Amino acid sequence: MSQHEDISKVYDLIVIGGGINGAGIAVDAAGRGLKVALLESVDFASGTSSRSSKLVHGGLRYLEYYDFRLVRESLSERERVMKKARHIVWPLRFVMPVVKQSRPAWIVRIGLFFYDHLAPRVTLQGTETVRLSKKTNRMGFREHYDKAFIYSDCWVDDARLVVANLQGAEAEGADILARTPFKNAERDGDNWLVTALDQDSGRTLKLRANVIVNAAGPWAVPIAQSVPGVTTDYSAKLVRGSHIIVPSLYDGDNATMLQIGDGRIVVTMPYENDYTLVGTTDENHPGDPRRVEITDQEQDYLLAAANKFFTRQITADDIHWTYSGVRPLFEEGKSRDDNPTTVTRDYSFKIDQGADGKGAPFLTVLGGKLTTYRRLADHVIEKLKPFLPPDIGPAHTGTSILPGADIGSEGPFAYAETLKLVFPWLPDTLRIRLARTYGSRVEKMLAGVEKLEDLGTVFGGNMTRREVDYLIENEWAASVEDVLWRRTKCGLRFSEDETKALSDYIEKARALTAPKEAAS
Ligand SMILES: Cc1cc2nc3c(=O)[nH]c(=O)nc-3n(C[C@H](O)[C@H](O)[C@H](O)COP(=O)(O)OP(=O)(O)OC[C@H]3O[C@@H](n4cnc5c(N)ncnc54)[C@H](O)[C@@H]3O)c2cc1C
């Protein structure tokens, strides 16, 4: 890790924000030979990028709002992102029952026809029409529902997609700095002088760059507004989406798309083996983007949605975990109306070059989806080309794969089978979890280990000391939240005491490595 290096060089690009967009821009730029630094104030993916609905999807409902550009781009990205990150992105079949009081079946079918054909589809299956009454246990649905469509999208481990991109960027020479908030910047001659704070050491960093890319998601507008000489003719308000995690609502590995009476959509999908994820809501969030929590009202809304459709009925007591995220809704004629549900999920950029229009550029990223992060990054670099060295390398992210994704074309479950040969002593649940969390990196994590006991203390669930050490040494993990809720979701199976013990261990382990890092 280059966390404590003394940085005195001039970067081509400094990226603010270690969410999916910042990470995607960093790997794209570094892979083209640019000198890149990325600043993240807390932990990578600690903003919206660990709080999404976990879909790499075309966005079926955006067709209703005629967002054809966005839907086409998103659809074409599904298989590309799946190839790039096979270990953490895989196909998901969605069951969408026809609801009498909602959109007519023929309209939904036409929408799905477009969904299947707007962009090339190679491996993902097309739409089929089914009768739930002919399926085992009606696929978990209540008897009110019979006709249904089944179509394809993809599942993604959002926070791990961020880390994989950052590992890729670091491998290409980028300086990736966690817990290092951007503080301010000023134009100095032809470039920027940036001040950031290394929170681990308490040191103030001064960095020089030709271009700043502000990819701070919900924080992007306040950051742009705080930089002297940057004009912001746009503002943002935040919209919150919440999810609940409950014991599995149905058998099977399909997701569902539920048309709620108010015209909105709720999705459910299998989550971490024993659970179902239900989301999302769309509520204005006037507060701090770091303090995002589900309200009782949102909880009731999601419970009612699930109970309306599934035989297995649930109450608030069944909620095992919740999480919420915010998306910034930009106000500059981009939104069609004030309704957070119908506002576009498309992205755009603002470039500021100071009052005379000739200063060092400050590019702010507005909006976006996980699904389109790679295209967004590509567009950012294209847009910045006039300000970048002329010998910049070609676009590469459309074909390159991310660290951990070299697991063969059959996906993580088939890869987990092959791991049986290498690590026959690994219990099945642990082997499968490691394969779909780390992909081929699991072989690095377990190199030299010959028996289960050598993995060390079990902190909780099936998380061992070996895995925790790997996360600290290789994935910038520095706190119990990083380990249990972003790099993994093992927090679902940890008790309070286990969490405390792990937290103490991480603190000690980091204290031991800190002097070594400072000396390097
Ligand atoms: C509820 C919900 C569900 C969603 N579901 C999906 C989905 O299923 N599929 C999909 O494609 N998209 C989905 N999206 C959209 C997607 O999650 C977001 O577009 C994406 O995560 C935004 O990434 P980002 O990098 O722009 O922002 P973020 O992930 O928020 O990253 C910004 C980063 O900037 C950092 N930061 C803030 N201030 C500073 C500073 N001063 N210095 C340094 N760093 C700073 C933050 O800590 C944060 O890590 C969803 C969004 C929401 C809200």
Automatic annotation (TrEMBL):
Catalytic activity: a quinone + sn-glycerol 3-phosphate = dihydroxyacetone phosphate + a quinol
Ranges where the Alpha-glycerophosphate oxidase C-terminal domain occurs: 399-502
Gene Ontology annotations of biological process type: glycerol-3-phosphate catabolic process
InterPro entries (alphabetical): DAO_C, DAO_C_sf, FAD-dep_OxRdtase, FAD/NAD-bd_sf, G3P_DH_FAD-dep
EC number: 1.1.5.3
Cofactor: FAD
Presence of keyword Flavoprotein: yes
Keywords of this entry: FAD, Flavoprotein, Oxidoreductase
GO CC term (a single one): glycerol-3-phosphate dehydrogenase (FAD) complex
GO MF annotation: an example: glycerol-3-phosphate dehydrogenase (quinone) activity
Keyword Flavoprotein: yes
Pfam families on file: DAO (PF01266), DAO_C (PF16901)
PROSITE patterns linked to this entry: FAD_G3PDH_1, FAD_G3PDH_2
Residue ranges annotated for the FAD dependent oxidoreductase domain, each copy included: 12-339
Family designation: Belongs to the FAD-dependent glycerol-3-phosphate dehydrogenase family.
PANTHER family in UniProt: GLYCEROL-3-PHOSPHATE DEHYDROGENASE (PTHR11985), GLYCEROL-3-PHOSPHATE DEHYDROGENASE, MITOCHONDRIAL (PTHR11985:SF15)
Protein name per its UniProtKB record: Glycerol-3-phosphate dehydrogenase
